[in-house]
Specification:
501 residues, alpha+beta, Protocatechuate 4,5-dioxygenase, Chain B, Glycoprotein, Type 4 Pilin, 2 domains, eight-stranded mixed β-sheet, four-stranded antiparallel β-sheet, 14 helices
Length: 501
């Protein structure tokens, strides 16, 4: 689901017109007033407390976990629809001692990139004010590079509806409220890394606020939701992440779910328990436009040592920090390029390929070079990291085979004689002095007067060029005079590449 969307259309169980709950303390500095009291939950403090207590007392047959929950997943609809489901997760943490509680929810009303972290003050409900853990919030802002965007919080219900439950089950808690914007891989991984950095030495609870599929028939919703529950329970985070970033109708808070699970995997070996599943028909919603709700809890069966180096799941690096691939991974990617070209040339079809390898989902600049009996037959690529690695390789392979203007398109009779080479690039770095160029290590880019030329780092080695010849040749590649690199108007960039064939 897209973050900014019409997912609040059915007001009876998802949302209501924006209305400020007037109170004397609403104007206090850094205190977020309740927006949805009287709409999503009771406005009267006594009735609100009683309603939550009824939900908690109705919880039955909770599993015995191997430790206190480190993370819970709860819904964020009106209490009449999802309150009972949420209670199953909150009952598990009732009375536990946590140093801090991080609440993560999606942005329904305001579109933005990144995350917004509420830095200080508190969140007010009819039950009082739940204070923000200012120290942890500040640390998370520094660790992630995300900032505070007031508009992301002003009308957002996904966090607000969790506050009364927390006030009942963890009355001494301090919170770190986080609203997630557009769900991209980079945002999700930055948040997971930041959580791991800041919370690894704390007794912390992470609360993920999400509803499940939206506006399907009950049968269809229950089927899709069960598939999603299985992915979560089995910790198939990469499969879940792909669905979330592609906008599939499975979770409106999917970015938070993925970030939370990745965070736990960075800290150790997590175990997930699905506590309850229900849908909006339980509260009287229509059967032809159902919204799914889940409650889940996760804990760490085993924690990594704090001093242990924890490498992000989507990027395998060497000790020097360089991007690396195993021989098996290189072979798989080379075969992917070959199969993509052969299928397209023979049948005019785009290869249908998916991988659960998180390194293949890392966005990287890529060039694919095709040779025929040792001679260049096509070479095209993306300098900037704009696509996941495997998608970039498929596209570059097809373009090199069919769209390189220096050559005619590859024909079927040639396929058996073709060889493939892949170059995975580092981001370009501008240089001021041509002497910085190291032949054999650096690829080279020149940009001048709207023209641009690129040469890969292996080219000068294959051709026997020195640095000056390398510079002259990249100028010619751009359609510039060979000495254009000496001009003050010329911009030079270098990059490195992991090359394999």
């Amino acid at each position: 689901m897209k973050i900014v969307s019409s997912i609040l259309i059915i007001f009876s169980f998802l949302s209501f017109p924006y209305s400020i709950w007037a109170n004397q303390e609403a104007s206090l500095e850094n205190i977020r007033p309740p927006v949805y009291a009287g709409l999503f939950y009771e406005e009267n403090a006594h009735r609100l407390a009683s309603r939550i207590e009824v939900y908690l007392q109705a919880v039955k047959n909770l599993p015995q976990l191997g430790g206190d929950p480190d993370l819970i997943i709860v819904p964020h609809a009106g209490y009449i629809y999802s309150g009972q489901t949420a209670a199953y997760a909150y009952a598990l943490v009732k009375g536990k001692r946590y140093e801090t509680v991080v609440i993560i929810g999606p942005s329904h009303q305001y579109g933005f990139n990144g995350c917004s972290i509420w830095p200080k003050g508190g969140f007010k409900t009819p039950l009082g004010i739940l204070p923000v853990d200012e120290e942890t919030a500040s640390s998370l802002i520094k660790a992630t590079g995300f900032d505070f965007i007031p508009e992301a919080h002003s009308k957002e219900h996904s966090l607000e509806v969790q506050i009364p439950f927390l006030q009942k089950v963890l009355p001494e808690a301090k919170i770190v409220p986080v609203v997630v914007g557009y769900p991209t891989r980079k945002v999700i991984e930055r948040l997971a890394d930041g959580l791991a950095t800041v919370l690894r030495s704390k007794k912390a609870l992470v609360v993920i606020s999400t509803d499940m599929s939206h506006y399907l028939s009950q049968a269809e919703a229950n089927k899709i939701d069960q598939e999603t529950l299985n992915l979560i329970a089995e910790l198939k985070v990469e499969s879940l992440l792909r669905k979330v970033i592609s906008g599939e109708n499975i979770l409106c808070g999917g970015a938070g779910v993925c970030a939370g699970l990745l965070y736990l995997q960075k800290l150790g070996e997590p175990k997930v328990e699905i506590l309850r599943y229900a849908d909006s028909t339980e509260g009287g919603g229509p059967k032809n436009q159902v919204v799914g709700y889940m409650a889940a809890a996760a804990y760490l069966k085993e924690r990594k040592k704090i001093k242990e180096e924890m490498v992000g799941p989507a990027l395998k690096k060497s000790e020097s920090g360089e991007f690396v691939l195993s021989q098996e991974e290189k072979k798989e990617l080379l075969n992917l390029a070959k199969q993509a070209v052969e299928l397209y040339v023979r049948e005019g079809k785009i290869i249908n390929y998916h991988s659960d390898n998180p390194r293949f989902w890392e966005e990287k600049g890529v060039f694919v070079t095709i040779k025929k009996r040792g001679q260049l037959r096509g070479c095209i690529g993306f300098i900037e990291p704009v696509l996941p690695l495997y998608i970039a390789i498929i596209r570059c392979a097809l373009l090199a085979a069919t769209e390189d203007p220096r050559f005619s398109p590859v024909e079927e009779k040639e396929l058996k004689s073709l060889e493939y080479e892949i170059s995975v690039l580092t981001p370009p770095r501008k240089i001021d002095n041509p002497r910085e160029i190291v032949v054999g290590r650096h690829g080279l880019i020149i940009s001048m007067e709207g023209k641009k030329g690129v040469l890969l780092p292996q080219v000068p080695i294959e051709e026997g060029w020195d640095r000056e010849t390398f510079l002259e040749q990249v100028c010619l590649k751009a359609g510039l005079p060979p000495n254009a690199w000496r001009s003050a108007k010329a911009e030079l960039y270098v990059f490195e590449a992991l090359v394999f064939h």
